[in-house]
Amino acid sequence: KVSRNRKIGLLATTATVKNPYNAKLIEDFASDCQVFNRADPDLISFIEHDLFNATPEMRKKAVLPAVDFFRKNGCDTIILGCTHFTHIAEDIAREAGPGVSVVDSRDGVANHAIDVESSLPEINDERKEGCENLPEDEAFFCTGYKSKDDISEYETLCRRFNIPWGGIITEGRG
Hints:
46% helix, alpha/beta, two-stranded parallel ribbon, Rossmann fold, 174 residues, 8 helices, single chain
């Protein structure tokens, strides 16, 4: 309903672009549109590692490849298909220009997470093992990291915004 010319860009992770759930969403909500998917691991890496110390010029340089991709394909709507991108939504909108709508997908992501969580079985005592001393609900957790430096960056981010650092969630915990 947002796109006037029926050309929609989806900026997402590689996993989201390849996920059958994504294809189903396109079929259900945009079957009459052309959807141009762009997986952008470089932009995600920039957000995770460089964003908080980046100058406006660095931010612009980081978003331009994605914006240019959607511009070349004539998209009048860009959907942010990953919560990472909400941190640079204003940068994307500024570079895309006034004729392009940038759609934040946080509500959809949250609703899907609620649907998935409500379909899961109750957590039994065995699965709770190791979770006894987790920080309060507002803590920041990560599902993994590429290098030990990532942990330090996440801890720094948490300190900067006064968010409790929850740590790394590994399979079978959390």
